[in-house]
Write a structure and sequence with these properties.
By secondary structure, the chain is an alpha/beta fold. The chain is built from 13 helices and 16 strands. The strands form three sheets. The protein has a seven-stranded mixed sheet with strand order 4-10-9-8-7-5-6, sandwiched between helices. Strands 11, 12, 13, 15 and 16 form a five-stranded antiparallel sheet that branches. Strands 1-2-3-14 form a four-stranded mixed sheet. It starts with 9 loop residues before the first helix and ends with a helix.
Length: 460
């Protein structure tokens, strides 16, 4: 047994990490993880005193920022009272967390099944849908990410799925709407919406409606590119909007609608849930990340009355040792209450509308490498291209190594300006905490402005 003290400098921290930690999504010998010494609010810092504005919210989860004192205190108080208890017991803090979540979800999603994170939430939502309907198939979009566990990774549409895809998980994929890179050759958002819905209904018809248990969608796809779905349109040919249209298809064919709000939920889009922007009530809603800003692992499924009734006298065949863990639930209660008391959701909406949206659109006008800017609240993507006319991405899809060099250079330039970005493929995602101030948002935009001059070197 080792008696070595906890490392207190960057060299020791990195050495211990290299010796014992196995990192996700990485070739272990090719990475050099930064050593973090501390964090507070919208910033974290290393052992050399380098301070970074966290424009990634880590993995788009620290919605209330780092080390919020009310949440830290709640975890400490709960630990002193009851650290852990099995899921089969009724516990005040678990019930209160469920009540607060149910009170903010749309419609009648009043029952909460707790998990340890988003992937497990997706796993259980899919299981519930299959048991409720007695059907095997689940439809998911190509541009999506739903987690890294068995069913969740097979539902995922991005390249992280490829090494684990069994091609036998009962998953059928379809194209969701994305007008900037329209798979439907649409000339307008309304046309994109109409053609995407027609494509989805055709997919349902050819797969057999009676075989489909659920359609799962990220309400606003996150890692895949923050593509806000087309809203309702007026005029001679009114459209219901994409998500209401999917809801109508699900109702028509008896299919469960699962909205994945793991990344988009709890204030990220300037509403408690992204579904609130579109007036849509799913049958199941998955959440994690922002529910307690990741202070203690927590996720869950919000369940409609109809699906909950399926398991009123029939046992639900699923569970987790740490489902509704008291420390996690205490942090969720404190987080939700702090968000309500401090107007954090409203702040996300205001900063998005007044600072990030206008600022990013202004950058797009000045930098030829910016092909598109899109988002809501504190949930934005900047799409980088080599040619605005052809919309050729700055780097190829799933680029690695030398092919990804332009994006690597952009990323390095942002970090050199003291801002930690969220970068995926040919995009920089602008996803600061929901508590970000206007001054902090402007600091991040200034760093991005400087970095885009690097991207411009590769643009036509």
């Amino acid at each position: 047994m080792s008696t070595q003290l906890v490392p207190t400098d960057a060299v020791a921290v990195k050495a211990a990490d290299r010796a014992h930690v196995f990192h996700s999504w990485s070739a272990q010998g090719l990475i050099d993880p930064p050593a973090v010494a501390g964090a507070e609010g919208s910033y974290f810092w290393d052992y050399d005193g380098n301070r970074f504005l966290d424009f990634s919210s880590q993995l788009v989860n620290t919605n209330i920022g780092h080390q919020h004192p009310k949440v830290v205190a709640a975890i400490q108080e709960q630990a002193a009272r009851l650290c852990t208890i099995a899921p089969g017991f009724a516990v005040d803090v678990r019930s209160e967390a469920a009540r607060l979540i149910a009170g903010r979800t749309p419609g009648d999603l009043d029952k909460i099944f707790f998990t340890n994170g988003g992937a497990e939430a997706v796993e259980n939502a899919v299981r519930m849908a299959r048991l409720h309907t007695g059907r095997p198939k689940v439809l998911s979009a190509y541009r999506s990410y739903h987690g890294a566990t068995a069913a969740a990774i097979n539902l995922t549409g991005d390249p992280r799925r490829w090494p684990s895809d069994t091609a036998s998980a009962g998953v059928v994929r379809f194209w969701g709407p994305f007008h900037y890179r329209s798979p439907f050759h649409a000339e307008s958002e309304a046309q994109e919406c109409e053609r995407a819905l027609r494509h989805l209904e055709d997919t349902i018809a050819f797969e057999g409606p009676g075989t489909i248990a659920a359609i799962i969608l990220e309400t606003v796809p996150g890692t895949a590119g923050i593509m806000v779905p087309p809203p309702a349109t007026a005029g001679r040919c009114p459209q219901p909007g994409y998500l209401p249209g999917v809801r109508a298809l699900c109702d028509r064919y008896g299919i469960v609608l699962i909205l994945d709000e793991v990344m988009a939920g709890f204030g990220r889009t300037g509403r408690w849930f992204a579904a609130d922007h579109f007036g849509v009530v799913p049958d199941l809603l998955t959440f994690a990340k922002g529910v307690n800003s990741g202070y203690v692992p927590l996720g869950g499924v919000a369940i409609s009355a109809e699906i909950a009734a399926t398991f009123e006298e029939r046992p639900y065949p699923g569970g987790l040792t740490y489902s509704g863990h008291p420390l996690a639930c205490a942090s969720a209660v404190a987080t939700i209450n702090a968000m309500a008391e401090e107007g954090i959701v409203e702040n996300a909406a205001r900063v998005g509308e007044d600072v990030l949206g206008p600022g990013l659109r202004e950058l797009a006008e000045r930098h030829p490498s910016v092909g598109d800017v899109r988002g809501l609240g504190v949930f934005w993507a900047v799409e980088l291209v080599r040619d605005r006319r052809t919309r050729e991405p700055l780097v190829p899809y799933a680029a690695t190594g030398e092919a990804n060099a332009p994006m690597a250079a952009v990323t390095a330039a942002i970090k050199a300006a003291g801002v930690w970005p969220f970068v995926n493929m040919n995009r920089v995602h602008v996803v600061p905490p929901c508590t970000v101030t206007e001054a902090e948002a402007e600091q991040g935009l200034a760093a991005l402005d400087r970095a885009l001059t690097v991207a411009d070197r590769y643009a036509a």
